[in-house]
Structures are given as C-alpha cells and as structure tokens.
Design brief:
GO terms for molecular function: cysteine-type deubiquitinase activity; zinc ion binding. By secondary structure, the chain is of the alpha+beta class. The chain has 24 helices and 30 strands.
Length: about 850
C-alpha cells in the first residue's frame, strides 16, 4: 500500500504545483518519508475528482480500520519490556529480509514468517514494522588498537559493525494493511505509542555485544584515610627488586610503609612469590601500587586494595607517592596493568593450538554449522551449546520432534521467558541452516560466497532465560563451561520433569556407586547420580618421563643463568593417557576419619567407585588444578593422550557380592552424630593458610570425605560460587548421601529443609522422585536410606539409560587461559565424517583438533 501511495504522490505532484517537500527526521535517523503541503489555491472539485479515483480514498477507508483497532494499541510504560531487536521465536532482526514486527499491545517482536502465529494466538492486529538497510562502509575505514576491554564502545575492540538506515510503518493484520510512519494522518495514540517504543531502550540491550566491558574502578574507601609511616624510605625511579626475593618484575609498592614486594603467584606458575599479599596479611596495610605503571597520567596507575580485593582508584595517589620521594612526572611505563594483562590475553591469541590459528581453515555453512556470536564473555555458553545440540537427544527433542509453532503455541504469554521456547528457537537457529550463510559486506553479494565469516546468531534471549535462576551466569563475566553445563542440564531436567521419557538431559545421566570397606572387613555402599565423570590427572603416569626430566634440567640451568624458556617449542609437557585418568577414578583410596559402626570407632576406610549405568553420552571433565609445593594452586599444563574409541566396561559396579557383609545400618543414639564425616583439621588448616574461608575449607574436606588437600582444593575451586557455600554446616549436611545443592533446590520450591532432606534420602538424591515422595511418601518406592544396599546383583537404576561400555569421541570443549574464569572457550565437534571447529561465530573444517588439550570430552555410546 505504501508503494502505491508513493506512486500516487508522484502522480499528483503536477496537481499540487505549489507544494513544498520536507524530509522528516526521527530519533536521529534519516527517514525517507516525504510530506507535501499545498500553499497555492487549486480547484477543489478537480482535486476531489482526482482523489476519488485514486488510492487516497482507499487509504481513508483503511485509516478507519486502524481507528477501530485503537483499543488494541498500548502506550508503553517505563516498566514495560520492549523487544525491537530480535524475534522472540526466531533469530530474525530488523536487518532480516522481512524486517521485524513489534506487537503494539504486548511489545513482543516477530519476524515476517511468525507474526501471523502471534495474531492467531492472541488476536492483536496492530504492529510497528521496523526495517533496517545497510549503509556502505568506506573501504579506507581505519582499524583502531583497543585500549579498553570492551566491544562496540569508544576505546574498545572495533568490531566493524556496519551502519543502517531504519524505516518504520504501521501494519494491521491479517491483510497486512500498511501505513507509513511518521505521518500526521495517524491517530495520536498510535504516534505516541510508536514514539515511546522507539525511544525506549530495548529489552535485549543488556545482552548485546557492547556489554563486554570491564567494571569501572571505584575510589577505595581506604585512600582518603590512608596513614603513611615516616620511616625514611625513599623510592628510586628505577632498579627495583623485591625485598624478600630476587624478583624484579611484577613489583608492588605498599603505600603505607614503602615496602617493595612481588605480586601473587599465578595459576600457571608465573607472576611473583606472594610476598606482597603475605605482607598485607601480616600488617593489614591496605593499598599498593604496581611499579612500572606509574606515569604522569596517574589515572593509568594500577592501584590495588587488599581489603576490597580489587583494583581501585586512589584520588590522593600523587601525595602518597610524594611521601616516598617519587616524582611521577618523570617515570616511564614499563609494566602492564592488571586490566592490560587481561586485555592482552584476549587480543594476543597465543593459544594457537586450540584455535588452530595460522592454519587455513576452510569455512563451512549449512544446517548444523551455524556460529554463535559472542555476546561478551559468552564463549563458555557458545562452546557448550554447540556440542550439546550435536547430540541426538537434544536434536530430536527440540528440533525434529518439536516445531517452532508447537513450542510457541504452548508457551506462556511472554515466550521470551520460557526455556522450552528459547531452546527450540536456539535449536532451529543452529540446526536449520537458515542463518548459516556467508556474511554480506558492504552490500556486495558477490563477495559473500568467498567470505569466511558468517553472521551467526546471538543467543541473547536463551542466555537471559537460562541465567535467570543463576546470578553468576546473568553477568557478563567469563564463567566455567563445566558449571554452565551442569546448570543447563539441571534446568532442562526441571522443565521436563512431568515427561521423563522426553527429557534429553537423561542421555547424560548415570549412576555411581561407592564401596567403603573398614578394617573389620564389612562394607557399605553409597549411590548417587551424576552427569559428568570428573577425573584426576595422575602425572606419575606420564609416558614421557625421560623428556620431562631433561626439560626440567634445561629449565633449571636457564633460570640459574637468569634466562627463560624463549620458545613454546622448547616446553615439554607431561603426556598422560586418558586410560590412566579413568583408572584413577576406580582406584582404591583411603578415607580418613570414617566411623565404623562395626568397630564403634573412627578408622581409615578403603573406597572404590564404579558406574551402575552407562549413559548415552559420557562427559569427562579433566581436573587441571592441583597443589604445588608450599600449597600453591596451579593449573596443570599437561597433554591428555585421548583415544577416539574407549571401553569403560571394567568400570561397571557389581554391587554387593556373595560373602560380603554390610556394616550395621544404624548406630546407637549417642553415636548418631559420630557416624557422619567430620572435616579433617589438617586439611582445613592447610586450605585456610592459603587464604580460603574456614567454613568453605570445612565443607571442602567433608564433601571429599577427607581424601586429601588436593581433592578438597579441586572441590573448593568448583563450588566457590555455590548459593549455599556460606550456609552453616548442619549435622545432616555432613551425611554425604544428601547433596546440599539439591536440598537448596527443594527449599526454593517452598518445602521445609528437614522434609527436603528426608525426601532426597528416600529417593536416592533424585529431585523428581523426591518431589513425588513429599506429596505421596507411601507410594514412593525404594529404600529410605541409600547409604547401604542389600542388592546381591548389579545396582543399575532402571530409570536411567544404560547399554554397552564402548564410546566414540564426538566433541571437545577446550579452554585457553590461566583460569576457567578468564580466557576463551572453543568447541570441536565430529560431524558427517569430519571434525569442525566452532570458535564463536567462526565455523570451519578442523585440520588438527586439539584432542590432547580439552577441558571437557564428550563421548557417544556405540550401539552394538
């Protein structure tokens, strides 16, 4: 209709010979809408005749149609969530061919192929249509070096985002009657509603790519009241050295007493020797500044507050430096700040092996090969979801067996907050191939076919809904891919609780049985379910011991000469077979402080473990954080020699065997408390000496059955962000057969804690069964105490998938960086006979997948 009106306008330009034409701008956008106003007298009868025979008469009739639907138009309030950047059913945007239609009643957005579904569902007929057309980008547009860890803002990464012209119109369904906007002919309510929609910040904005930015440093609460000690210390302009060791880099000046000390030892062994933090622990002098970062621009100096545990701003830094005789105006920058190191790590991709940098990666497009655009530190999500949606279970549940229309029809009024809808949307986005096409640059379609980059999709709505129940994943900070995987699986299991046979999360679920034998010869069996098999890396099983010894000698020699290993090619890393890691899971280990109800005393028990069921998909997690001498945590720089085919059949648990005698189930009343595992004080004190919270250390010892400092450290690093990590230790929590996180889950449903614990104990730790037990305990099956089992045969859970123990490697999630909380994640997936690399929105054929360096391994069971 609008095209016709434009043609009609041109037709009548001769008639309205005295008209003036105006270009109307809207919200800073140039809108190609023309309004003409007659300023010359004309024959009204002639005009009426012309208009009667023209589409203007039709426009008048259609305007009445719009007026009759004004009751379905709402003017948004400031609190309303307005979607105008992405369809809530698909990944269509205003840039898509059909643009985006915003429901002017619910303020939800829909692509052209889906807006009709919304009309059928709720009857809302009036929509604001938004269409963006790309502007040409100058070929000589310069690239700027980033100075801020951010994307899409001044000083951040120049992501070369093109600019767009934006046009608007009002559309009435079902006939798609269209009116141009802006237009004075539109009813005032419509104009006010559109203005409010366009001015408002979109609900998607908080998840957009420009959100990747470092937190702004705050003024330290200690800076204004800092007391400095006049001890005669004067700091020279150069030649600094740690007062307690020979370190000459990464040095920090304490602003209270002028001590120069080295910084913290990092996970990879680099950095300092912790002398600066040790000095704070002894003196509680709060502020230090990193030497080498002080220049005439004091805002760039790296000031750290130990009590606040973060980089801060010191507005009195000039005075504090002058106290020790430092003339900052003459100093030169010689060290990177903490933020610059983080930025350098994200811009200098020296993790060439994992990203396959330097190799000519052949781009690949089509169904199943869609990239996920980084929303800002969201690579942990992208890498994990690429592998998950390469499994048959998730592909079937949310793509083959459920259409977008089906998911939308059963979704609540706001489908953006429905996980089922957003999972189906993500599945179609990744698997349909609709969005896996070469990116068009500068509107040059001819060059698109040779372009290695694709537009990809932005999983903003999925991230928002999956993170809504987890405060950490709601942030824009980097996260642990393992923690995200477990959180995601838990959420999927919940929404499919009423239909367990359709739950794709079950394909990852398996049973674990632990056997405990005390010196009396009697045994106890504990059972639990899990989704990942977490494996220690036994470095003593390295197959290249000779090369490692030679490398250590070379390294020691160079360090004695004041040199460093100059090339990564010189570094020799331990190579440990995956089979050795799997063996370590079942290998007997000692459990200190175990109370034997047969001996009526605490003793040392021997624990072994096995799997009661073999899942459809087996996820292996490699524990790469260990303790060095001096109890310094370190990330292992190790290679795992991985086989494409593995057989875990020997790991199957056999249950109680003939001739074995179970430990007495119940202890005397006065011994009830002592049957629970108590934290080993040696483990707790060693962890606490590293600066960890004492309560957290106790929980780590309890939850690892006092197996040792290294095991407790691994548990602590994996659970530091648990919602109940600071909750007091209850007597019941010491019993390992009840998972505290699952108790918290049931409590969040509104059940009392004591009832939640009983339900979990009666249902073997299964949340779904525990819920059923609470509502109908008499009908619940299974023993009330899962500590011991009297089964004389295999202990497989009939509700879990099970099969043969032979598996094929189908996916890797690799991590680059010194900690799971920083760096970058990349996925490699085996598809259609080839390995494919998924590096955010870059998808290509992998020539050399880094199997030996992965953080998570995904295996698929081979059906016999």
């Amino acid at each position: 209709m609008w095209t016709v009106l434009q043609e009609n306008t041109h037709k009548h330009r001769g008639l309205l010979s005295g008209a003036k034409f105006f270009q109307i701008g809207k919200l800073g956008q140039r809108i190609n809408t023309q309004i003409f106003i007659s300023i010359a007298p004309i024959d009204s009868s002639e005009l009426q005749s012309e208009l009667y025979d023209s589409p203007f008469q039709t426009n008048h009739m259609e305007m009445e149609l719009l007026r009759t639907n004004l009751s379905r138009v709402r003017i948004p309030e400031p609190t309303n969530r307005i979607y105008k950047q992405e369809c809530c059913i698909s990944f269509d945007t205003p840039k898509s061919e059909g643009g985006l239609f915003v429901d002017m009643n619910t303020f939800l957005a829909f692509g052209k192929d889906y807006v009709g579904w919304n009309f059928e569902k709720n009857g809302n007929p009036v929509y604001l249509h938004i269409k963006q057309t790309k502007k040409p980008i100058p070929e000589d547009r310069p690239l700027k070096k980033p100075t801020l860890l951010a994307i899409g803002i001044d000083g951040g990464f120049d992501n070369q985002e093109p600019e767009y012209d934006e046009s608007y119109s009002i559309v009435i369904l079902p006939d798609y009657t269209t009116f141009p906007f802006p237009s004075v002919a539109l009813p005032e309510k419509v104009r006010l509603a559109v203005d409010a929609i366009l001015i408002a910040e979109g609900a998607e904005r908080k998840e957009q790519i420009a959100s990747w930015t470092a937190d702004k440093k705050q003024i330290s609460e200690h800076a204004l009241t800092l007391k400095q000690i006049d001890n005669g210390v004067r700091i020279p302009p150069s030649g600094w050295k740690c007062a307690k060791c020979d370190k000459t880099e990464n040095l920090w000046l304490n602003l209270t007493d002028g001590m120069i000390l080295c910084g913290r030892k990092l996970w990879d062994g680099s950095g300092g020797n912790n002398h600066a933090i040790d000095h704070y622990n002894e003196t509680h002098y709060p502020l230090a500044v990193k030497l080498g970062t002080i220049t005439s621009d004091l805002e760039g100096a790296d000031v750290f507050s130990y009590p606040e545990d973060e980089s801060v701003t010191d507005p009195l830094l000039a005075d504090h430096l002058a106290f020790f005789g430092i003339d900052f105006s003459s100093l030169q920058k010689t060290e990177m700040t903490t933020a610059e190191k983080e930025l350098d790590q994200n811009t200098n991709f020296d993790w060439n092996r994992i990203q396959e940098s330097g190799q000519e990666v052949e781009p690949i497009f089509g169904p199943g090969y869609t990239g996920l655009t980084n929303l800002g530190n969201s690579c942990y999500l992208a890498a994990t979801m690429q592998v998950i949606f390469s499994t048959r279970s998730f592909c079937s549940r949310y793509y083959k067996n459920q259409s977008l229309k089906m998911a939308f029809d059963i979704a609540p009024a706001d489908p953006t907050v429905d996980l089922n809808m957003q999972l189906t949307k993500l599945a179609y986005g990744l698997l349909s191939g609709k969005y896996s096409v070469p990116a068009v640059q500068n509107d040059d379609v001819a060059t698109a076919a040779s372009n290695t980059k694709q537009e990809g999709i932005r999983p903003r709505m999925f991230k928002a809904v999956i993170a809504s129940s987890h405060p950490e994943f709601s942030t824009m900070r980097q996260q642990d891919a393992l923690e995200f995987f477990l959180h995601f699986i838990d959420q999927v299991e919940r929404i499919n609780a009423g239909y367990p046979e359709a739950d794709p999360a079950r394909s990852f679920k398996f049973g674990i049985e632990e056997r405990l034998q005390c010196p009396s010869g009697k045994v106890a069996y504990n059972k639990r379910n899990d989704y990942i098999l977490s494996l220690n890396i036994p470095l003593e099983k390295a197959t290249n011991r000779k090369e490692l010894d030679e490398f250590q000698k070379l390294k020691a020699q160079k360090e004695a000469e004041g040199q460093e290993i100059s090339s990564s090619n010189e570094i020799v890393r331990p190579r440990v077979p995956l089979s050795a890691c799997l063996d370590s899971f079942s290998h007997p280990e000692e459990v200190q402080g175990f109370y034997s109800s047969a001996l009526k005393a605490r003793t040392t028990a021997i624990k072994t473990a096995g799997l009661t069921t073999f899942p459809d998909y087996l996820v292996l997690h490699m524990r790469k954080f260990v303790m060095e001498a001096g109890w310094v945590p370190k990330k292992l720089d190790v290679y795992i020699d991985v086989d494409d085919i593995i057989d875990i059949s020997p790991m199957r648990s056999k249950g109680i065997q003939p001739g074995e005698e179970l430990l007495p189930e119940d202890a005397p009343e006065n011994e009830k408390e002592s049957t629970q595992v108590l934290p080993n004080e040696d483990i707790v004190s060693q962890l606490a000496s590293m600066g960890f919270n004492h309560l957290h250390c106790q929980k780590a010892a309890i939850n690892t059955s006092n197996a040792g400092v290294e095991e407790a450290m691994n548990w602590l690093l994996s659970h530091m962000d648990d919602a109940d990590i600071d909750a007091p230790i209850h007597k019941e929590a010491k019993n390992n057969d009840v998972d505290p996180s699952k108790v918290a889950t049931l409590v969040s449903f509104g059940f009392e804690e004591e009832i939640a614990r009983k339900a979990l104990k009666a249902s073997g730790g299964d949340i779904e069964k525990a819920t059923d037990w609470i509502f109908n305990p008499s009908a619940a099956s299974g023993p009330s105490d899962m500590d011991a089992t009297s089964s004389s045969g295999p202990t497989a859970d009939a509700t879990l998938p099970d099969g043969a123990g032979k598996y094929r490697l189908i996916g890797l999630v690799s991590h680059m960086g010194t900690s799971t909380r920083c760096g970058h994640y990349v996925a490699h997936v085996y598809k259609e006979g080839k390995w494919v690399i998924f590096n955010d929105d870059k998808v290509g054929v992998s020539k050399d997948p880094p199997k030996e360096m992965a953080y998570l391994y995904f295996y698929e069971r081979i059906e016999s």
